[in-house]
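hi! just following up on the protien thing from before. the input was this:
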Amino acid sequence: MMRKKFNFSAGPAVLPDDVLKQAAAAAVDFNGHGMSILEMSHRSAPIVDMVSETRQLVRQLLNVPDYYKILFLQGGASLQFSMIPMNILKDGETADYTDTGAWSAKAIREARHFGNVQVVCSSKASVHNHIPKDFEQSPDQVYLHITTNNTIFGTQWQEFPDANGFLVGDMSSDIFSRPVDVSKFGIIYAGAQKNMGPAGVTMVIVRKDLIGRSERDLSTMLDFAVHADKDSMYNTPPVFAIYVVNRTLQWLKALGGVDAMHEQNKTKAKLLYEEIERNPLFKSPVAEKDRSLMNVPFVFAESGDEKHFLDYCADRGLVTLKGHRSVGGFRASIYNAMPMEGVESLVEAMQQYK
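and the predicted 3d structure came back as:
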């Protein structure tokens, strides 16, 4: 049997082998019910229980206080770029945004439809190679928005700033990868397809007192209050995607939870960054203190044939390593489910490449 490839894609991304096997089995027969999970009603007891269990797993693994609601929505994190300001900001109110990459720029663009958006810092001039930390917030700020990890440029907030209002965090690419003090945030949101499941479901953790804050007359499907009241069951949710999240979180829990996973992630990233620094063929374009544990871009130190290196890696079963066009070079996304063996294989390839 051919050895499985190591998938370094930034998203949709690698999932644990055990989770894939459980998902495949559930697609045929869900937990012995004699039906595929794909054809079961979201109102049936087994599915309602599964979604409830998934919500509880999130609460346990992230230590989410009781005064937060956990929602499973659709539309990706991209829809939250609009839903959050439309649900939170009243007419004329101000939100501060940090511009640290492509996704934060998109969030800024959407938020401007619903309030006064102040961009309090930006790393755009340096091709987003660092996280700005010295910036002044608006005194009348409702919230400060940050993208905690930047998949394209490989930067990550190592410490979260204190907000004049409350923090809103897009954690799509580093959720469940490290401990987080949820109480510092009014809202945390994350598309599943990078670090906790497949595309199709988005998790939103929202403080209960913020639901309905904008007092806008919103379309039903865009109203946090509707989804919170119906426990994410107002319409048919992405059941199968939520189930894969459930299995992934059970896998994480069995490994020791977020604290244990954080240690593994630090070890994997350290191994790869050390090779980039050691190897004269490669270099990192990212400021050392802001380097991501999840997404590691690297480029040739001088000139080199990028396609040749990518083909060389592909022949070894190391795939989707091509860097984003705005950075070039290569990018290794080493999310929770990337095994140490995958990182070791990439390092070995870098060492042997001529």
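The chain has nine helices and 14 strands.
The domain at 256-352 is CATH 3.90.1150.10 (Aspartate Aminotransferase, domain 1).
cheers
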